[in-house]
Structure formats: structure tokens, C-alpha cells
Amino acid sequence: MIKFFRNIRKNLLNEGKTTKYTKYAIGEIILVVIGILIALQINNWNEARKEQNLELALLEEMQENLKADIVDMQDNVGYHENSIESANIILSAFKNNISENDSLYKHFGKVTLAPKFLVTMNAYNSMNKEGMKLIKNDSLRNTITSHYQRNYAYLLSWNDSEWDMLFKDQQDIYRKYFKEYNYIGEVIPENYEELSKNSYYKNYLKNRIGFNKSSIKYYKVFGIKNAKSLIAQIEEELKNRN
């Protein structure tokens, strides 16, 4: 093709048609510029398409991450509810002078249940790596950032403080008042009769109930509720983009 254009220019010069040559040269330059612009436009379109495909793929992955988080949080809520139930059973046993038994040993063990919240961050970390501007919907982008940097950050901070408290309780209470933690999750008191009258341990149980209730509230409000809302918002965005 280049040789073809070169031959046309050569013939025009040989024939002395300078004006036509000039016009032709200008036309050829315009064609080259148009070709370059078209190539750039196609390249930009391809890059935009790749970016959009990546955005949608990460949003779909984030939906799955959030669903996994919800399952984990719901399981954790269940553990906290069991802990509250066991603490109440122990307090009731103390109040009603119920004798020491294997069932109570299991409840002594369940009081300490506090699972770790394991956030699935794959999609969010990838978005941060690519740049959050990858998410074109400003409202959705702000919701995603708020959910992970505020809601989850607060929930994880609370969860960490709970673990710190439980380790402290292990030193202050369980090593002092209990003699055995066996392989089936039973915790056996050193002296059940004395423990049933111990105001320090009973206050611990009451405080544990209050802390568990707060944990459940935070899981449901900051975690599960907002995660479900974000899933719905992502679903709406994907629907509008398809």
C-alpha cells in the first residue's frame, strides 16, 4: 500500500503536476492522521472494555465475598447466643442451688465462646490495587469504601477487644477457679460450691452476657444488615450494566 502511494506521488512529480502533488500529499497526510486516530480510538475502546469487564468481575466476586461474610457473622451470632444461654443457665443453677453436674461443665465452657470474624477481602483488596475509581458508580463506590473502612473496621476492632478480654479472663478467672478443660469442651471448677457463691465470678457472667449482647447487635447492624444492603446495591448495578 505504501509503495502504491509512493508511485502515485512519483508520477505526479514526473508529470510536473506540482499542485496536484501538493493536494495529494496533504490528503495522504490527512488519511494517515485519520488512520492513527481510528487506531487510538479502537485501542481506547478495548482498554475501556477491559476495565469494564474487570469492574463487573470484581463486583460479582465482592457479592460472593459478602455472602461468605454473612454466613460467618451469622455463625458467630449463634456462638454468642449460646454463650448467653449458658451464662444464664449457670446463674440460675447458682441461684437455685442446683448440684454440680456434667451438663454444667459444658455450659462453663460455652460461656467463653467468642469466634473470630474472618472477613473475605479478596475483591476489595483487588479493587484497591486497581484503584477504587475502577467502580464507575460514585454512590456504589462510596458505599463499598464505607462498608469496609468503617463498618468492618469497627466490627473487627470490637472483635479484637473481645479476644483480648477473653485472654485476660483466662488468666484472671479460669486459671484461678477451674482445674480442667477437657477435649469435649467441658470446664470443671476447682470447687463448685465456693464458685456458686463467688460474687466476682457471678459478676463476670453478667458482664459476659452484656458484652455478648453488644457483639450480637454489632454483627447484625454493622455487619449483616450493611452487607446485605451492599449486595443488593451491587446486584442493581450489575443488572443496569447488562
Task: Describe the protein's architecture and organization.
Helix 1 (2-14) runs antiparallel to helix 2. This protein has one domain (64-241). It is mostly helical and 242 residues long. Strands 1-2 form a two-stranded antiparallel ribbon. It has helices at residues 2-14, 18-95, 102-110, 122-130, 138-177, 192-196, 199-241; strands at 178-181, 187-189.
List keywords for this structure.
single chain, 242 residues, mainly alpha, two-stranded antiparallel ribbon, 2 strands, 3% strand, rod-shaped, disordered N terminus, DUF6090, membrane, DUF6090 family protein
Reported for the largest beta sheet, the result is:
2 strands, antiparallel
What is the string of helix and strand elements?
HHHHHEEHH
H/I helix tally: 7
| First and last CA, distance | 41 Å
Organism: Flaviramulus multivorans
Keywords: Coiled coil, Membrane, Transmembrane, Transmembrane helix
Protein name: DUF6090 family protein
InterPro entries: DUF6090
